[in-house]
């Protein structure tokens, strides 16, 4: 069987982000499964020994804290989740350090909050640290900084975090390891679903039901968050392989398992990636069809004439979403006006406006179309 170009790219990747979910590292009673963890470490160490650089984005802090804290199930309230993560992250980092030491490999713990990638200055800081760790031959083990992240500033799921980290480190591939061997057209727990081997564009995803965030017992993200994360990575030029942690050896070897998502877009600059995926949007601009075509197809700046409505609380310099007449987010960009200024300008052509208000509402350089 000849491998698709995506799988060949994953197999040949030099710098790889591997994301592993809680369900792959912990027992159903809620404690670390050291045996499965060490099998994963064996596989990662093998790839490093072969000259690869691996960033491990590992979930499992909350789940690993359940048993040591004497809890019987995953806590539902944020404070207890954070307490569990505080206990569990220590156990997780310790287990990785011990396990990688079998191969004389050092691990470095990197705990990130959403702010660390949403704010541009923090983004560059995290980028520098991760690059330095990799350059020094250390295996970075990344997780969300659960103990301090509040509901408002959470990534919420590590699949998204892994996609953002992939871009941050300029990864050649992202491997998402879960408890299911591939993406199916419906939840495989229900039976009768068909496996999807390759995703090369939106057409391959038509009719796929990945659930909302229907996670299994210990995870949080579910398949929908993996699909969303795969989209973030591959539309930014990074191919993705999704499979089970039981298939990790093949995933990091011949890449002949699971579902492969082809890189559909080009690598974005740090600024454009931040604009497209990381920055929080403070408002929404509704566009007419002509403006959608100008912005998305012809890559023009957005002018006041093509805007039909404005929502949100934003100042000039904030990030906003640009919506089509049907409400689809077609682009994101940095708006040049405060929200109060726009209502009197929208729908009017530039030459009808006073000279000081003739500048573009979103300049083409500050605008990224979304697929
Ligand atoms: N279309 C689908 N294809 C594959 N798995 C699906 C699909 N829809 C829902 N799922 C479920 O999503 C689960 C994986 O998500 P999750 O439990 O969050 O994993 P992890 O802890 O590895 O992040 C699988 O166990 C599977 O039952
Ligand atoms: N940061 C959390 C995990 C969040 C998460 O996305 O979990 P999962 O769906 O298992 O990848 C933790 O370490 O428990």
What would you say this structure looks like, in words?
With 371 residues, this protein is α/β, with parallel strands linked by helices. The chain folds into two domains: 269 residues, 3-Layer(aba) Sandwich (Carbamate kinase), CATH 3.40.1160.10; 90 residues, PUA domain (Archaeosine Trna-guanine Transglycosylase, Chain: A, domain 4, Roll). 34% of the residues lie in helices and 20% in strands. It has twelve helices and 15 strands. The strands form three sheets. It has an eight-stranded mixed beta sheet, with helices on both faces. It has a five-stranded mixed beta sheet with strand order 12-11-13-14-15. Strand 13 and strand 14 form a beta hairpin. Helix 2 packs across helix 4 and helix 7 runs parallel beside helix 9. The structure holds adenosine-5'-diphosphate and ligand VHF.
